[in-house]
Amino acid sequence: MSHRPLQTYQGSCHCGAVSFRIQTDFPELTTCDCSICRRRNALMVKVHESAFELLSGQDALVDYQFHTMTAHHYFCGTCGIYPFHRKRVTPDYYGVRARSGSGFGFGSGSGSGSGLWALAFGFSLLPFTGEGAPKGRMRAAFGL
To answer: What is the CATH number for 16?
Structure first.
């Protein structure tokens, strides 16, 4: 049982075309070992559909299905970010990417998110400040 209060959080994709609101007390964070979740290294919170509200971007969502064709993995058609998916085993629940919102408590850098991550998984999360990187740095690093 979670010791955190039930709170409302807002999240979005990178470009903001898809935005949503959830209510959760973060009872657990999950990772999945299916082929798509392993590749995207998703850290998710499970949210019942009654605690999930899509605020904008229904028309921007792209639905990707594979294997049993049961789960619905949603991506923003503009920026490509995965914000959430309908779960296969419990289709009345969403798996919401835990780093989809600024208020989730799993933000970038050395904020409260790093501490929660370390407590939950027993290791430190080292911040990388990509926002402050000089433009063109990645292109030069990859020879583009």
So the answer is: 2.170.150.70
